[in-house]
Amino acid sequence: MLSKGLKRKREEEEEKAALAVDAWWLDPGHPDVAQAAPAVASSSLFDLSVLKLHHSLRQSEPDLRHLVLVVNTLRRIQASMAPAAALPPVPSPPAAAGAADSLLASSDAALSASMASLLEDLSHIEGLSQAPQPLADEGPLGRPTGGAPPSLGALDLLGPATGCLLDDGLEGLFEDIDTSMYDSELWAPASEGFKPGPVEGPGKEEAPELDEAELDYLMDVLVGKQALERPPGPGR
Amino acid sequence: MGEDTDARKINHSFLRDHSYVTEADIISTVEFNHTGELLATGDKGGRVVIFQREPERKNGPHSQGEYDVYSTFQSHEPEFDYLKSLEIEEKINKIKWLPQQNAAHSLLSTNDKTIKLWKITERDKRPEGYNLKDEEGRLKDLSTVTSLQVPVLKPTDLMVEVSPRRVFANGHTYHINSISVNSDCETYMSADDLRINLWHLAITDRSFNIVDIKPANMEDLTEVITASEFHPHHCNLFVYSSSKGSLRLCDMRAAALCDQHAKLFEEPEDPSNRSFFSEIISSVSDVKFSHSGRYMLTRDYLTVKVWDLNMEARPIETYQVHDYLRSKLCSLYENDCIFDKFECAWNGSDSVIMTGAYNNFFRMFDRNTKRDVTLEASRESSKPRAVLKPRRVCAGGKRRRDDISVDSLDFTKKILHTAWHPAENIIAIAATNNLYIFQDKVNSEMQ
């Protein structure tokens, strides 16, 4: 069976080994669970899921159902990989931060690397930005700008910054206008907060200014003062 | 169509009428109209092809009406959303027929964002004998007109004309997955991943949002709407399914926004079958009310389930479509097949249910006899007018001669879209870019 353009990072033998133990996680009472192999199977499944998430988020308009299912599966896998972390099913940001800490501590370098690269790629995806909003103060790795835990980054990236024009009061005004561009948190520069390292700090501070210029432009478009044209800002 | 018909007759007496190759385009939806006279298909290229059943001829053994092409038109074109810099696919996601109210036929077709109402009319007469124009339409030299005549209608070759009557745009932020016409014949609903809107068929610039499951914080998004349908008789009731496998029955009389369900249908997870993929395989890909309105049929990745509207705790019947895939879920997750969305269908009397599978197989379950059959829709496996041979998938153990082993199933040949004639044993099966129409010869003679 062929996968759809997914790049295989692992050797084929390892994949076969992982697939051969397909039924692993079906039965927690299975004698083999005691062996190291389950961790291997889970880890490869985790990588696969992260890859899928990455691929899905890369789409210009991701399939929301696919995305949600992959993220939920990822959460299940994470929960099983670090049972001691007691990851709550629907974590609120502060709780998630704690879980993220322990998960990050316990996961291997490859895992962090893949998550980091995922988030890095996402932060490169330009999009209509949102008004600066208070980011959850997590900073599991002591990042200056803070951000939601990267291990649950996927949906946090979706999170947006819907704060921008979608404050409750304003939303009613634009009921009949397609505000999907504001909803599309999928390429939210809020992900900027997840970038590892302080180097990005100064760059990110510029973003809010751009945001407001873009917002003004878009407001003008909406009220018809300006003809529709490609918005300024980080071009695609 | 007797419910007491021996299941063997259903198994063995299906004939194949035609196999239509819709020229390189993958069929994305199939729908019979309310009488079964017309069959509409939509494809990835945004085209709609309508087939019409020929009137039955009295003589000959093959006198059942066969379906021929009636009309073809381009319903949706690819669009570009300039604000988001996104292409909007022209693929037709769903077609729903309106009940016929006059000589014209009407249907709704939708892509990811825009729903259109199309009117299909026939013209078999044309006026002849104009005073000012000649037969080719050119203006006559007035000096040659010496007397006046009254134009008369003369019969002409049948022409089928299709025109877009309404365009319902800008109602959806996310991708539309279902549309459903209300039994009041005045309104219809459209559902995307997070919202359901109610439209009036005559009003295009306004719609009412009746369900909104978008969380205030998108971080909290864990569930999306996968399908929805109006109750066939009660114009205030509709159901929608979710990616977590639950069904919500809503009553529009209760509130303007039906976020609070009237009933929640959910089966508790089977602990012995628990896996990382439990949620994905429980995601409901299609929901259909029975013709009686008493039951609902749902399709998830491995099963079809029949639910009684009066019982929310669990389905009353569960049928395994391809349980041999349960041990292959990891591979199917890897190649994304686990996300395939299969549809399901009732027959006219709600006694048999049908759904598609892989390898161009489709399955039928007789609810009364509890017998099931696997059939294949492919030109290689059956000649025209031959009787379909039941197939069997062998998952290990004793293997019979014509069995297909699980490992040799072709997962690129999926039958996602199927439809059953509202009254007769005629089914339409979409196999990638081919449409198969099967008729049950024996039963139609027993009418």
TrEMBL record, chain A:
Region Disordered, residue ranges: 131-150
InterPro entries with a match to the protein in the record: E2F-SERTA_domain_protein, SERTA_dom
Domain spans labelled SERTA: 38-85
Signal sequence coordinates: none
Transmembrane segments: none
Top-level taxon of the source organism: Eukaryota
Pfam families referenced in this protein's UniProt entry, alphabetically: SERTA
Gene Ontology CC terms, in alphabetical order: nucleus
This protein's name: SERTA domain-containing protein 1
Species for this entry: Trichechus manatus latirostris
Gene that produces this protein: SERTAD1
UniProtKB/TrEMBL annotation, chain B:
Annotated GO CC locations: protein phosphatase type 2A complex
Entry keywords, A to Z: Repeat, WD repeat
SMART domains xrefs: WD40
Record-level Gene Ontology MF annotations: protein phosphatase regulator activity
Keyword Repeat: yes
SUPFAM superfamilies documented for this protein: WD40 repeat-like
Entry's family note: Belongs to the phosphatase 2A regulatory subunit B family.
Protein name, per record: Serine/threonine-protein phosphatase 2A 55 kDa regulatory subunit B
Native source species: Trichechus manatus latirostris
Originating gene: PPP2R2C
